[in-house]
C-alpha cells in the first residue's frame, strides 16, 4: 500500500472510559516537583535503589503515515547503587532506515540550596553505536548524577513500516510509579492488542477524533481511534528461581497489524503469514542466499563424513567439527553479519553463521537437513499467531530423523550435544524451511523425556560426629551439558565449591570427571569427601541425606512470586545412599 501524504486537523468527537481512576498529571520536560527531588524512597518498594517516576509513550501517524513514538521518561536515583540506571542504551532497527531517532534531550536535576539545578548533557557525549547492518543504538550517561538526582530524557522514534508498531513495557527492573501509553490509530489500520498483565490497567480510556485529509473538494474525513492506558505503582521485576526471560514476564502490551482498509479500497491482510516469512528468508541475501556458498577446504571434511556408515555418525562428526572449529562471537541475530564464507575463514561468527555453515556441510554430505529460525530463552517466546521475523534471534539446523525423533542442532555452544535439543530453545516455537517442497512450518519445541541425574553415596558415620565416604554422580543430557560447561569454564576449584553448595562442613578431597567429551555417555563425577555433622549432640547424630545432591533447600519459600514458574524439562533425580 502506498503511503498517504496528508495534513491532519483533529477534533475529539467521542470518549469511552473503562476505568474510574483519573490519569496522573505528567509534568512537562524540565518541570520537577520539589517533593520528587526530596524523595528518599519508593513508597511501595522501600528497598529500591531507584525508581521510574513516570514513563510516557505517545504513538501517532505523521503526515507521511510513518509511525511516530514520542517518549518521555523520568527516573529518581535514591543511592549510589541506583546510579547504574543513569547509563542508557536505546536500540533501534536502523537497517534500510526502518527506524530513526530524533530530538533526543537529556538532563539531570539536583536539589541545590533548596532549588532545582539542571545539568544538560554535552551532545558530544551521546554516541551512536552501529551494532550490525540492521541494528544501532543511542548510548549515553547522564551528567552530574548523585544520590537524590532526578534524571530525565525524551526523544522521538520514527518507523516507516506499518508492521513496526511499538511494544510498551509498563514494568521494569526497578519500580515504576506511573507508566502511560497512548495510541492514535487511523481507522484504516486495525492493530490487535496483545496484553500481558498480572493485574488491570489503572487508566483505560478510549476516544475517537475526526481527521481531515487534504483540502477543498479533495478533503477526506476519517476517524482516529485513541486509547490511553496507564498503570501505577508497579513492582520491579525480580530475578526468581525457575523463571523465563524478563521479556516473557514483564507486564506489557504489543500490537499485531491484522488488516488495512485504505480509503475507497479493498481490505488487505495486514500481517504476514509464516509461509511468506519463510519465503522471504530463503530469498534473503543474509540467510537463504548463504546456504549454498562454498567453503574453503570443505571437500576434505565432506569426504571424511562420506566414509562414515550411518547418518547419525555423519551428523555427530560434522556437528562436532563445526562446533570445535568455530568460535561464537556472542552475537545473536536471525541473519548473518559477514556471511558464512568470511565467518569460516575467520573461524568466528554469530550463531546463525555458524549453524548455516553446519547446514551447508550436512547437505553436501547427503543429510536431509533444513534451516530453521528460533528464539532463545533470553529473547523471549515466539508468538505463533504473529508472523513477524523479528521475533527470532538465531538460525539453527533441523533434521527430522523419523516419525518419533528429530534433531535441532546448534553448534554455537561448545557444550551442546548433537542429540539434544538445546535447553535455551525449549518451550517456544521455531520456523523450519523446506525450500524444495515449499514447506514453511511452525512447531513447538519441547522435550518430554525425563533428564536423569543419579547419585550413589557410600559413607561411614563415625562416633565423633564426622562422616567419610565416596560419591558418584551420573549426569545425563542437559545436566551433563551444564556441569561440563561449569567445570571447563570455572575450573576444578570452583567446581568443587559448586558441589559443596556453600556447605562449609563438607570437604571434597578427591575429584575425577569422565566422559566430558563423549556425547553418548553420561558425565561421571567421582569424589571422596569428609563431613562434619554439625548440630549433633550426645544422644543423636543429625545429617541431611541430600548432601552433595543440590536438593537440600526449597527454592520456592518466598512469600510472594512475581514471575511464572517454568521447569524447562522433566528433571529425574535418584539418590541411593548407604550409611
Jot down its keywords.
579 residues, alpha+beta, disordered N terminus, 5-stranded antiparallel β-sheet, single chain, 3 domains, 9-stranded mixed β-sheet, Immunoglobulin-like, 38% strand, 15% helix
Care to describe what's here?
The chain has a nine-stranded mixed sheet. With 579 residues, the chain is an alpha+beta fold. The chain is 15% helix and 38% strand. The relative contact order is 0.09. The longest helix is centred in the middle third of the chain and has 15 residues, at 311-325. The chain is globular and about 95 Å long. It has three domains: 10-269, Immunoglobulin-like; 274-445, Roll (C8orf32 fold); 451-578, no CATH class. Helix 5 runs antiparallel to helix 7, helix 6 (340-346) packs across helix 7 (351-364) and helix 8 (477-490) packs across helix 9 (492-500). The termini are far apart. A hairpin with a 4-residue loop joins strand 7 (127-130) and strand 8. It has nine helices and 28 strands. The protein has helices at 34-38, 246-249, 274-283, 298-306, 311-325, 340-346, 351-364, 477-490, 492-500; strands spanning 10-17, 50-61, 67-77, 87-93, 99-112, 115-120, 127-130, 135-141, 150-159, 168-169, 176-186, 189-196, 203-213, 220-234, 252-260, 268-269, 327-328, 348-349, 370-374, 394-400, 406-409, 428-434, 439-445, 451-462, 466-475, 506-514, 523-532, 571-578.
Amino acid at each position: 500500500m502506498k503511503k498517504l501524504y496528508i495534513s491532519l486537523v483533529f477534533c475529539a468527537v467521542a470518549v469511552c472510559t473503562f476505568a474510574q481512576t483519573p490519569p496522573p498529571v505528567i509534568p512537562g520536560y524540565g518541570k520537577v516537583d520539589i517533593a520528587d527531588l526530596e524523595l528518599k524512597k519508593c513508597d511501595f518498594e522501600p528497598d529500591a535503589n531507584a525508581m521510574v517516576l513516570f514513563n510516557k509513550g505517545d504513538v501517532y501517524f505523521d503526515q507521511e503515515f510513518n509511525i511516530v513514538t514520542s517518549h518521555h521518561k523520568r527516573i529518581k536515583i535514591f543511592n549510589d547503587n541506583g546510579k547504574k540506571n543513569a547509563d542508557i542504551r536505546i536500540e533501534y532497527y536502523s537497517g534500510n532506515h526502518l527506524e530513526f531517532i530524533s530530538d533526543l534531550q537529556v538532563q539531570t536535576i539536583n536539589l541545590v540550596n533548596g532549588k532545582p539545578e539542571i545539568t544538560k548533557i554535552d551532545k558530544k557525549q551521546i554516541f551512536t553505536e552501529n551494532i550490525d547492518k540492521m541494528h544501532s543504538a543511542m548510548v549515553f550517561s547522564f551528567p552530574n548524577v548523585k544520590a537524590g538526582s532526578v534524571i530525565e530524557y525524551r526523544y522521538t522514534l520514527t518507523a516507516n513500516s506499518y508492521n513496526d508498531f511499538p511494544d510498551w513495557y509498563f514494568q521494569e527492573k526497578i519500580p515504576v510509579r506511573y507508566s502511560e501509553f497512548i495510541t492514535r490509530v487511523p481507522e484504516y489500520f486495525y492493530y490487535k492488542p496483545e496484553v500481558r498483565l498480572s493485574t488491570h490497567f489503572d487508566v483505560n480510556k478510549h476516544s475517537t477524533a475526526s481527521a481531515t485529509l487534504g483540502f477543498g473538494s479533495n478533503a477526506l474525513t476519517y476517524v482516529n481511534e485513541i486509547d490511553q492506558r496507564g498503570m501505577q505503582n508497579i513492582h520491579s521485576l525480580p530475578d526468581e528461581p525457575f523463571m523465563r526471560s524478563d521479556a516473557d514476564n514483564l507486564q506489557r502490551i504489543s500490537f499485531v497489524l491484522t488488516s488495512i482498509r485504505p480509503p475507497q479500497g479493498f481490505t488487505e491482510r495486514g500481517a504476514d503469514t509464516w509461509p511468506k516469512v519463510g519465503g522471504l528468508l530463503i530469498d534473503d541475501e543474509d540467510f537463504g542466499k548463504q546456504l549454498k556458498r562454498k567453503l574453503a577446504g570443505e571437500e576434505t571434511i565432506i569426504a571424511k563424513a562420506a566414509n562414515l556408515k550411518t547418518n547419525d555418525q555423519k551428523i555427530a562428526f560434522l556437528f562436532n567439527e563445526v562446533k570445535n572449529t568455530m568460535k561464537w562471537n556472542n552475537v545473536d541475530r536471525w541473519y548473518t553479519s559477514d556471511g558464512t564464507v568470511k565467518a569460516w575463514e575467520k573461524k568466528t561468527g554469530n550463531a546463525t553463521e555458524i549453524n548455516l555453515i553446519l547446514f551447508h556441510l550436512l547437505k553436501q554430505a547427503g543429510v536431509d537437513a533444513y534451516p530453521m529460525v528460533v528464539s532463545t530463552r533470553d529473547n523471549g517466546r515466539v508468538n505463533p499467531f504473529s508472523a513477524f521475523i523479528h521475533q527470532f534471534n538465531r538460525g539453527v539446523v533441523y533434521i527430522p530423523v523419523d516419525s518419533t525423533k528429530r534433531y535441532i542442532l546448534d553448534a554455537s555452544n561448545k557444550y551442546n550435544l548433537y542429540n539434544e535439543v538445546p535447553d535455551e530453545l525449549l518451550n517456544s516455537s521455531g520456523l523450519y524451511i523446506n525450500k524444495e517442497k515449499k514447506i514453511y512450518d511452525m512447531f513447538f519445541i519441547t522435550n518430554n523425556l525425563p533428564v536423569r541425574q543419579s547419585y550413589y553415596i557410600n559413607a561411614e558415620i563415625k562416633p565423633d560426629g564426622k562422616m567419610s565416604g565416596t560419591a558418584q554422580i551420573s549426569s545425563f543430557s542437559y545436566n551433563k551439558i551444564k556441569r561440563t560447561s561449569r567445570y571447563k569454564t570455572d575450573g576444578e576449584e570452583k567446581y568443587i565449591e559448586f558441589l559443596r553448595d556453600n556447605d562449609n562442613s563438607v570437604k571434597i578431597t578427591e575429584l575425577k570427571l569422565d566422559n566430558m567429551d563423549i556425547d553418548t555417555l553420561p558425565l561421571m563425577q567421582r569424589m571422596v569427601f569428609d563431613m562434619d555433622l554439625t548440630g549433633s549432640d550426645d544422644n543423636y547424630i543429625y545429617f541431611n541425606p541430600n548432601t552433595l545432591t543440590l536438593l537440600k533447600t526449597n527454592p520456592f519459600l518466598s512469600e510472594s512470586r512475581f514471575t511464572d514458574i517454568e521447569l524447562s524439562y522433566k528433571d529425574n533425580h535418584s539418590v541411593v545412599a548407604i550409611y
